[in-house]
Amino acid sequence: MMGHAPFIANTKCECGHQNPVGTVLCEACGKPIGEEFDSSENLEMRYDGVARRSQRVNPGVIDLIWNFFSSVKIAIYLIVLTLLGSMLGTVFPQESTFLNIDASTYYKEQYGAAGQIYYTLGFSHTYESWWFVSLLVMIGASLVICSLDRVLPLYKALTRQKIRKHRQFLTRQKVVLIANIEEDPEVWVTRLLQPLKKKGYRVKVDGGALLAEKHRFSRWGPYVIHIGLIIFLLAVLARGLPGLNMDQHLAFPQGEITRIPDTTYYLKNEKFKVEFYTEEEMPEEFRGKKVLPKLYQTSAVLYQCTADCIDPSKEPQLSEVAAHDIQVNSPLEYKGLKAYQFDYDLTPVLRSVQPELINSANGESYGKFMLEMKNPERSFQVGPYTLTLKEKYLDFGLNEEGQPVSKSPYPNAPAFLFLIKGPDLPSAGQQYFYFPKQVDKAQFQQASINDKLGGQDRFLELDVANMSDVDFAESTAYLNIRVDRAMPFVWLGAGIVMLGLVLGFYWQHRRIWLIVSNGELTLGGHTNKNWFGFRREIVSILERVDMAVDEKSLDNGGGLA
Amino acid sequence: MGKARKPIQIVILFLIVLLGGYAIGSSVFGGDGKPKEGSRAPSFELLGLDGQTHTLKQYKGKAVVLNFWGSWCSPCVQEMPALQAQWEKWRDQGVVVVGVNVGEDQMTVENFVKMVGINFPVVMDTGRDAVRSYGISPMPTTFFINSKGKVDSIHIGQLDLSTLDAQIGKLVSR
Question: Which NCBIfam families did the record assign (chain B) (predicted)?
Fold first, then answer.
């Protein structure tokens, strides 16, 4: 577009107004300038014919960058490229959606060579890639610069409109009427005021010339949309800042207060339950064939740490802040933190047992003690006997050298080695191996191990009397913990975009210029959409001043809508 | 108003470069948040077996060999003598070996330390905070952190005496 401007353009209009480079229609009288004058087509009314801010005779480097982003053509290319780029991210699942999948092998295993190429080219994280983010940044820049470059000149042009325009400005509009008027021009124009005002026009009169205008605000619609989009983009960008966004999946064993990492919150799963539809509740074709879940519910209590939160050598002090029965789509919410039901595991996890020390010779019981799986006490006094916990294996097994080891950190097959001291025992004490789970007792032959350790005449046994002495987490609830503090701004941006769309779509900026002189009426009209409705409105206004006009005769060509 | 244009243009372009640079930069270098070779080692604050709180900061100026282990992980057990030997060899030259136990309780850790006979500092990551911030998945994983607090190299899997010696030598010479 810059190429069309001659090196030194004479931009002074015959009305005496000096126009900036790039002006299409004189800012004052509306007379077409340069190439536009020689044409007989409809006028180019975009931005009311004013020059965009960046149009200059000798653009510098900054102007060139500015002009690049100011171009609508470039903006459209950027949007198309972004759309094509987004499509790439939909071919295979994105890495960001994986929880426990190793991306480096997943694509090859799942999709073969295509998957490997996809992963190698980085499309497995398309939306976080440098080129995708660069495109978004460029669209953001284009939004800001495009708007600034156009909205300010347009605003000025629309607030400084002259009533009396050049005749050519009127006759080359898309709505034109030329008719004879016998009456005195000023009287006729005055008669027109009432019907125009009734239709909602704001009217300005200058002798025999008139400018009627309504719904100018609709012109700001696109710029309001741009502001909304910029807020939207900034909000999305801000999600990357620390503390504004969190999304993690955590396990909460029933009955344990579990810390939520990177926050000062702790969450306790008081009770998890899963219910299934009974046979009677299901439709006939499902009966006996399907198991359909009815309810997943985690009764959760949220605690906030009030003191000693960071120091690992102290126990944190907690206070309850929220409680909720978390169900699917009904998360626990507290100050922007949300806990969603995500998964569950019904495998019970042993937490503690209260074994009883029994004299197997005479059946006498010396009492019971609390043995925790995690952080157990090291020494117990039971009746006259002292039990010292020497070794603990949560998942008992033997290594290659035949030594006892724990195969995992989970209490799958817990085993404890005690040293018992007391009456009728050797002074150095007697060792005793204890497997709380019945199945392990048999598998690892607790009795024969202890016979070896304590001899055939040993008389002490540890045993759990009944199930009330066993404590375990019945199930584990997996929750998705989310914080998204940028979300209100995303919604705000989206709301502003919607407002802009409504402004631009449901109202039209309509303007009517007319000049009555030498017994002739020259009328020109412009709107930004709905030309049909606009012509009908003009016809009905003219009817009020006893002027019959055919609707179609107003059409000055130019592909009207 | 013509005079005001240029500064406004420059300010707006500057803001775009600033925000855009941040956005692109964090997508290129931010990655998944796990430390890589050359990046700053994440700080930690963990309870040591000695009852004291240990942080990475307290070893500032020293080269740190940060070893993540569990008593149930047999390669972790097997590399302990090598770590102990290298700790004894290099401790006077500003090298500290720190063992991070992952998710086990004090008794297990104490018994283990006694059994394998190590005396370098051992801390307990019961909440798996350091595991998360260091992005540990298989164990053992060892981070070699230089005296400036930057990750020099990461070794996943069992270490043997000679490679450990070479790694530490490299760490100290830088």
Answer: PRK03147.1 (NF002854)
Check if CATH label 3.40.30.10 holds for domain B45-173. Answer: yes
Give the predicted TM-score (pTM) of the model.
0.74
Tell me whether residues B30 and A240 touch, CB distance under 8 A.
yes
> Tokens 């409109």 — which residue?
A161
Cα–Cα dist A60/B57, whole Å: 51
Question: What residue ranges define each of the domains in chain A, with the CATH number in brackets?
Answer: 61-158 (no CATH), 164-222+494-554 (3.30.310.80), 245-349+475-484 (no CATH), 355-463 (no CATH)
| A126: nearest CA partner in chain B | B27
User: Counting one residue from A and one from B, how many pairs have CB atoms under 8 Å apart?
Assistant: 90
Closest residue in B to A240 (Cα) is B26
Residue A376: closest CA among chain B residues belongs to which residue?
B107
Q: Please tell me the distance in Å from B172's CA to the nearest CA on chain A.
A: 31
CB < 8 Å to A240, chain B = 23, 26, 30
Contact status, residue B36 vs residue A301, Cβ threshold 8 Å: no
Q: Is the C-alpha dihedral spanning A385, A390, A395, A396 positive or negative?
A: negative
What distances in angstroms separate CA A223 from CA A215, A228, A283, A406, B43, one per listed residue? 15, 9, 55, 66, 46
ipTM here: 0.76
Task: Please report which confidence band the pLDDT of residue B1 belongs to, taking 50, 70 and 90 as the band edges.
Answer: very low
Least Cα distance to B48 among B147, B141, B122 occurs for: B122
A129-175 pLDDT per residue, tens: 889 989 999 999 999 999 888 888 889 889 888 899 988 888 889 99
